[in-house]
Amino acid sequence: MRTRSYLRPGAVKPRRLPGPVARAQVRPLVRQEGLPKLPVPPLKQTCENYLAALEPIVSGEELGHTRKLVEEFLRGGVGDRLQKGLERRARKTDNWLSEWWMQSAYLDCRMPVAVYTSPGVVLPRMRFQDRQGQMRFAAKLIAGVLEFKKLIDSDTLPTEYLSKKPLCMDQYNQILSSCRIPGTKRDTVLNQPFGKTPPTHITVVHNFQFFVLDVYNSDGTPLTVDQIYMQLEKIWNTSLQTNKEPVGILTSQHRNTWGKAYNNLVKDKTNKESVRAIQKSIFTVCLDAPMPRVSDELYKSRVAAQMLHGGGARWNSGNRWFDKTLQFIVGEDGTCGLVYEHAPSEGPPIVFLIDYVVKYIMVHDLDVNVLMFPDYGKNVPKQHNLSPDAFIQMAFQLAYFRMYGICCATYESASLRMFKYGRTDVLRVTTKESLKFVQAMQDPTKQNTERLALLQKAAQRHKENAYNAIHGQAIDRHLLGLRLQAIEDLTSMPEIFMDTSFAVAHHYNILTSQVGSKTDCVMSFGPMVPDGYGVCYNPMDEHINIAITAFNSCEETNAAKYANTVNDALLDMRALLEDTAPAER
């Protein structure tokens, strides 16, 4: 099927202002030179921590077998050889992990990006109820993102810090003017390289039709909100035909299938130019049709699905180009948010951009209507000298244990941005301390004072593990590096990576990420495994926004039930703190 009739970038020509666009070239963010390289943790330390991570999630028999394999790995020389290979790689590169991580975690993955890897973000519902309001808000949003881009281009974006240490800012260079390119076996990422003439257009999609919109004047200044609004009106009026095929839905397919279709699509010259215009655009704006009306109770879940995948072919899934790094979604009924392709960036830079843009378009005008745990926020654990993140994670552990009677491997994303080009490692939440705490909460013979002591120990262990993870001393990326080093050396795969325990340890039934935002928004993403949960949370001072996902095809999981159980766990844990508070004094 040829697509030229509805992918032409200039089908409607939002007015190009006369004269060539003269703009300063994009400069990369500096301040990277002083950042340290990502370390390779000591081999013995990783092996010991790996065994400790297995203790609460595998049987004693399995643990004993794995312990023998680990001892053989350390004694037999294989581990030492792979470790030295990693250390050589670390000396020769700025970051021994970053390229491997992007390939193995994202570009080699052949599952669809929609739901499986691309997070969606729900913004507070807007008040507008018609297309004029939709266009006006979209115009303000576009202007806000362009203002943020100016901070990147002028190298005036403030450096972020964690524990008073500067963080790598490189990911901000990756989120604009970038796009994933499908392949039949492996994908790539297109990013406008330094020194090239930067793109001056965005893409706008409405009613399944894609348009190029130049957003800069001939003198390099961005269009005003009013000018953008006028161009969006032209696009809307020109795209009223309803007989257009939803070509964008191809980007939601299995990556191998989409890679083959893509190769056929771009054989046509017009299609190739059109697709390139989408790929090279600064970002994409999706002007969505209204969602089907649902009850207030179901509204929030429906909006989250809308941001993740568009609701299906009948609704807005064809109104997307899921390979595009940034897609802002503005619905005619006031539903707003974004979906982003995960390969170029982690969540925090995206959330920082969101906070900036929402502030730009006057956050006090917004009707806040988001998923939230309303009874308390990070204020309560802070009052009891507990880490809010550790406290909330223990609630996720308790809820899972109450539903299934066991603990599972739990993934919390930990930033490695203290290091040059750092991405993430895994903060493993499930520990023997967390297991003892959740068991005690379900044991009627335990006193609350004992339960509190176990909670404090579990939270302290979580805090220590978090510190180690962000300082490059977690185990998962090191184990990945050792595996990939073995593949690169063309040696036989060590037994510890073929072991059942290794599979259990990496089957994350709970995938979590705290994405702190000043905006009262909710980010969501799909589970990592078919029988798992995706849990994204934003702890505010007085409440906690939590988005939980699960696959309907799995009979063992139920997102609503888990959400209710998390709610009860948070309430019970606050009651525990209040009940034991007098004894503490």
End-to-end Cα distance = 74 Å
Q: State the strand order across the main sheet.
A: 7-6-8-9-10-1-14
CATH architecture of the largest domain: 2-Layer Sandwich
Number of strands: 16
CATH superfamily of the largest domain: Choline/Carnitine o-acyltransferase, domain 2
Structural class, please?
alpha/beta
Can you tell me the CATH topology of the largest domain?
Answer: Chloramphenicol Acetyltransferase
| Fraction of helical residues | 40-55%
- The domain tally reads 2
* Gyration radius, rounded: 25 Å
Number of helices: 18
Residue fraction in strands: 5-15%
Task: Identify the overall geometry.
Answer: globular
Mean pLDDT: 84
Low-confidence stretches: 1-30, 363-371
CATH level 1 name of the largest domain: Alpha Beta
Main beta sheet strand tally, sense and closure:
7 strands, mixed
Q: How would you explain this protein's 3D organization?
A:
With 585 residues, the protein is an alpha/beta fold. It folds into two domains: 109-365, Chloramphenicol Acetyltransferase (2-Layer Sandwich); 379-584, Chloramphenicol acetyltransferase-like domain (Chloramphenicol Acetyltransferase, 2-Layer Sandwich). The chain has helices spanning 4-7, 43-54, 60-75, 78-92, 98-107, 131-153, 225-238, 255-265, 269-280, 296-309, 347-360, 379-383, 388-404, 432-441, 448-470, 476-488, 500-505, 559-584, and strands at residues 120-122, 161-162, 165-166, 178-181, 188-191, 201-206, 209-214, 284-288, 326-331, 336-340, 410-415, 424-428, 510-514, 522-524, 533-539, 544-549. Helix 2 (43-54) runs antiparallel to helix 3 (60-75) and helix 14 runs antiparallel to helix 15. The chain is globular. Mean pLDDT is 84; it is low at 1-30 and 363-371.
